[in-house]
Amino acid sequence: MVLSSRLLVVRPGGRSSGAVRPHRCPTSLIFNILSRLYSSIMDASSRIAQEWLTIGELAEATGVAAATLRAWEARHDFPRAQRTPRGHRRYARAEIEVVRDVVRLREDGLQLENAVALAQEARTQPPAAVYPEIVRRHPAERTQQLRKLSLLGLSWAIEDEVAASGAQGHLFGAFQQWRNFASARARWDELARTARSTHVFALDGEVATSDALHAVHLEPDAPMVREWTVVHDSPELAVALAAWELPGQSGLPDRERVFESVWTLDPAAVRDAARLCASVAAGRGDTDARDLLQGALAGSPSPSGASPGTATRLAQRALAYVEAGHR
Q1: For position 250, what pLDDT does the model report?
Q2: Where in the numbering of this chain does the HTH merR-type domain appear (predicted)?
Q3: Per-residue DSSP letter, 126
Q4: Fewer CB within 10 Å: N-end or C-end of the chain?
Q5: Residue 288 pLDDT > 60, yes or no?
Q6: Which CATH architecture has domain 144-326?
């Protein structure tokens, strides 16, 4: 193979002689150029291939049978596959962790539809909700479905325990709508007087704030709008309740609405919940929440967190509230 070009011979005076002569490129140089180009193409192809999985490879990596993955895709459009020109499925490597998350949520008792929704929500955007992140980061924490009436009872029990303990911690509450917070405003104003910081979250609307209580307004599409959350983080009392409203309940009476919920006294899980709340508040421009992330909530939590009788007292308080609500 010969490459040639017409070269002008330039004399020292700077003018061209007008003479041309063919230039032959050595075969060895051409071979080296083509070899490097071929290697570059193959390396790029290899990198692209490694980023995509066949359904068999996804099944092997996650422990979920290929037939099950096909059934999930048909019913829930998950995991979402790209198709090759010949129609074969190819999955992004990131789908491995999402499928694993769905498996863990299913093992915790969630229905497949809800598990898929939670896993995808946690992966498609920065953490902006407490429940899905706590479930993902702390799979040992058990989840359960609670009606809103039971959820209210447990929330009030936590608030009572915070007030009775005298602990001065960092308090967070998510109420979905500000009208829900209105009925709890007096209790939360009282809690805010002794707390080191207090932040409450709800869908954008009118609510009075104060030096002790910070109101964080959420956008309609914010994941936290679907949540019901109470978090108290202090060395003396670490407790968190996070619940995620199940979809498709618009026709139910308010107190019959059902939430997937998790509550915990584990200081590490509580600290994660507090950080997630503070992160959402900081993202909405709350400078005090930003300071918390860099200060009080930045380190590891106290290993104690709560006294041995705290769980018993919480259960007793919650039961009393729920029984009173059913009368």
Answers
A1: 80
A2: 52-121
A3: S
A4: C
A5: yes
A6: 2-Layer Sandwich (3.30)
Rounded Cα distance between 252 and 326, Å, is: 17
**Parts of the chain belonging to CATH 3.30.870.10:** 144-326
**Alpha helices in the chain, H assignment, sequence order:** 27-50, 55-62, 66-76, 95-107, 112-124, 130-137, 148-165, 178-182, 185-194, 267-283, 287-294, 310-326
CATH topology of domain 21-97: Multidrug-efflux Transporter Regulator; Chain: A; Domain 2 (1.10.1660)
Rounded to two decimals, what is the model's pTM? 0.62
Question: What is the crossing angle of helices 66-76 and 55-62, to 10°?
Answer: 100
At 140, the amino acid letter reads: A
Cβ neighbours for 132, distance < 8 A, ≥ 6 positions apart:
118, 119, 121, 122, 223, 244
pLDDT, tens digit (0-9, with 9 covering 90-100), for 184-202: 899 999 999 999 999 999 9
Residue 12: its pLDDT value, please? 46
